[in-house]
Amino acid sequence: MISRIRLARGALRFMCSSDKQTQQREVMEYDVLVVGGGVAGLSTAIKIKQLSAEYDRPLTVCVI
Predict the structure, then answer these.
(1) What is the C-alpha to C-alpha distance for residues 37 and 35, in angstroms, rounded to an integer?
(2) I want to staple 30 with a disulfide (CB 3.0 to 4.6 A). Which of 36, 40, 53, 62 is the partner?
(3) Sequence-ordered list of residues with C-beta below 8 angstroms from that of 34, at least 6 positions apart, any chain
(4) Strand 32-34, strand 22-24: pairing
(5) Verdict on whether the full-model pTM lies above 0.85
(6) What are the Cα distances from residue 35, in Å, to 15, 16, 17, 22, 40?
(7) Helices (H), 1-61
């Protein structure tokens, strides 16, 4: 069974100390976030993509 994980939606806003104007940052959405790009992290990402294809449920995966 694959559980879907969603990151927060919407653009992040922050105040720039030099000009005090609100700026927007680009936001990228993923279904799964894997922290760690070692053997275990990459294996996990590959397995998640394989399972998503097997169950015909496309998921986006990000490895950090």
Answers:
(1) 7
(2) 62
(3) 41, 44, 45, 48, 61, 62, 63, 64
(4) unpaired
(5) no
(6) 28, 29, 31, 30, 10
(7) 39-54
pLDDT of res. 27: 87
Question: For the segment 11-62, what is each residue's pLDDT rounded down to a tens digit?
Answer: 444 444 555 566 788 888 999 999 999 999 999 999 999 999 999 999 999 9
> Do 22 and 13 form a contact (C-beta atoms < 8 A)?
yes
Residue with tokens 């959405």, as numbered in its chain:
29
Residue 64, token pair as written in the block: 């950090």
Phi, then psi, of 16 in degrees rounded to 5:
-85, 125
In the structure encoding, which two tokens stand for residue 45, read together? 């990402």
Instruction: Rounding to the nearest 10 degrees, give the CA dihedral for residues 20, 22, 28, 33.
Output: 50
